[in-house]
Amino acid sequence: MSLKDELDAYVQKTVDEQWERRAGQKVPDAEDLPLKNLAVELDATVLYADLASSTKMVKGHKDWFAAEVYKSYLYCAAKIIRARGGIITAYDGDRVMGVFIGDSKNTDAAKCGLQINWASKRIVAAKIAEKYPKSTFVLKQRVGIDTSKLFVARTGIRGSNDLVWVGNAANNAAKLAALDPRYPTYITADVYSRLNETSKLGGDPKRNMWTDLGTSDMGYQIYGSTFWWSV
């Protein structure tokens, strides 16, 4: 079979085959699903943590310096995601994706975002400044969080495949993580409305940690926070 015939046959089979769905009780791994049209449905909260201005960093600094920043930031973000009950589902260059499920998924993800902000400032940026006191590098990052139903399927070819996460939460979280880093943590109104007070109020005296940013940035209501939460 020629390559063209193989591609034609695959796409035809994909669009003709009926989808099977099953309710998910956990965040799936790629190996949990076949490559056919079968998907797991989840009620989930998605978090993206993303370095800001990484292209500028790579162009303006040594390759080994950029690699140290990548490794340090992604390690801290991933460890915090896991510590807060999230499942790491993907790394993509300078960002990491985590998925949270369960009754406290929004509160857990929001706390996670605030802790990633703390670790970025108090650990990653602090250690870099200590090691390289003459460097002009300033670490900035954003975390985006949204919640929705997800339709999770396996995609790719045999020997090289992964999961595709279809749903508003995955798309919106990724877009929020690309906004202005003046707010290191962004959440949607759907997440905000489901937060318990531990992830909504902070400081002394207690006050709302989230600023209503309206709808102008994304076309739907979002909230931003400059607060951090120590680990």
From TrEMBL:
InterPro entries to which the protein is assigned, alphabetical:
Nucleotide_cyclase (IPR029787)
Name the Gene3D superfamilies on file: Nucleotide cyclase
| Name under which the protein is recorded | Guanylate cyclase
